[in-house]
Amino acid sequence: MTSEHRAREAHEGESFSSRKVWTSAIVGAVIAIAIILSSSRGQVSQMTKGDGLIYRYVAAHLNTAPADIHPVVRARGTSLRYGRIGLPIVLWTVSAGQPSAMRYAQPIVMVLAAAAASAGTAVLFPGAGPLSALIPFLAPGFALSIAGGYAEGLAVALAVWATIFAARRRWWWCAIALCAAMLTRENAIAVLLGVGVWAVVRGSARAVPVLVSSLVPVGAWYVFVQQRYGYLPPLDPYLRKATDTVGTPVIALIRSFTRAGAGRSKAMAGIHVGLAAIAVRLGRRSLFGYIAVAASLQLLVSGPFAWRYIGEAARTAVFLQLFVALALVTWLRPAWADRDTLAPAPVA
């Protein structure tokens, strides 16, 4: 085979891969549109719900003085809400800062996030064919976030691309994606932890300082929020006093099962404990497994309220769901996976 033939085959393969990624992005966008239209019945006013409305409020009130923040937002933790600045900034940008346009911008951002996530899984699973676009939707919290206009949809897309950059050893790009993910949803720090451990295991320990640098902008923003609104976002009293979402490690999880309440709350906690067990079982098989194990640590501090509502529980644990799904696909269909995301065999 001549060098010309090899170059032509390489070009054709690259073009095919590019087409597949774009096709997956379109499939993800179509699924997201279907989810949004079915849940809202085609009404724009219903395409954003619950906390999704708070994200939009923050986007429309970036410069509002703390004393003038709406009472509902204050009651739900001003520092926490402004700490999750990723989605509000994107909404502000897409709508050109026009509050009247944000109701339309929010579902558009959700569709774009779904497209990005599906395109990312097509890159991570080049052998999966069209099925790769469906993988992000295996995480129930992802689909729910798309339907309600929540931050998890954007955070998932950023996390997926962070894993791609890590697999390609593009550590600075990985750090940027991780930073954006954590500023969108603080529990994305599990992705940073999982990627960092995986990098060390793969012999790329020198990448760890680059990855850790992603925390610098996050820390700077948190300090700003503390100075302006009173608390560091993850320590906002809302999480412990108003909702009992975060508690004492291990004890909080035990209370989720022992505290009197609806059976579905205990069922949700039990399901995610099961996912955590799967994560531990598959932990050393792939990059996804390392991240899934890191995400399972969130369970240790999740109080009863974290599992009280099915939708909120699913969104809270979306990174655990997503990376367990990715790890399972890698384990069950190893031929689909990009080999760079696989962990090395344990040293004897």
Précis, in short:
This protein is an all-alpha fold and 348 residues long.
Explain how this protein is built.
With 348 residues, the protein is an all-alpha fold. The chain has one domain (3-341). It is 65% helix and 0% strand. It has 17 helices and no strands. The chain has helices spanning 3-40, 51-60, 71-75, 78-83, 86-94, 99-124, 140-148, 151-167, 171-184, 189-201, 208-212, 215-229, 251-258, 263-282, 287-296, 310-316, 318-332. α5 (86-94) packs across α6, α9 (171-184) packs parallel to α12 (215-229) and α14 crosses α17. It is globular. Residues 4-16 have low confidence and may be disordered.
Write the layout of secondary structure elements.
Blueprint: H1 3-40, H2 51-60, H3 71-75, H4 78-83, H5 86-94, H6 99-124, H7 140-148, H8 151-167, H9 171-184, H10 189-201, H11 208-212, H12 215-229, H13 251-258, H14 263-282, H15 287-296, H16 310-316, H17 318-332
Helix pairs in contact: 1-6, 1-7, 2-5, 5-6, 6-7, 6-8, 7-8, 7-16, 8-9, 9-12, 10-15, 13-14, 14-15, 14-17, 15-17
What descriptive keywords fit this protein?
348 residues, single chain, globular
Mean pLDDT: 91
- The percent range for strand residues is under 5%
Count of helical regions:
17
Which bin fits the share of residues in helices? Answer: 55-70%
Radius of gyration: 20 Å
Span between N and C termini? Answer: 41 Å
| Elements, N to C (H/E) | HHHHHHHHHHHHHHHHH
Main β-sheet, in a few words? Answer: none
Q: Helix- and strand-based class?
A: mainly alpha
Shape label: globular
Poorly predicted segments = 4-16
Whole-number tally of structural domains: 1
Beta-strand segment tally: 0
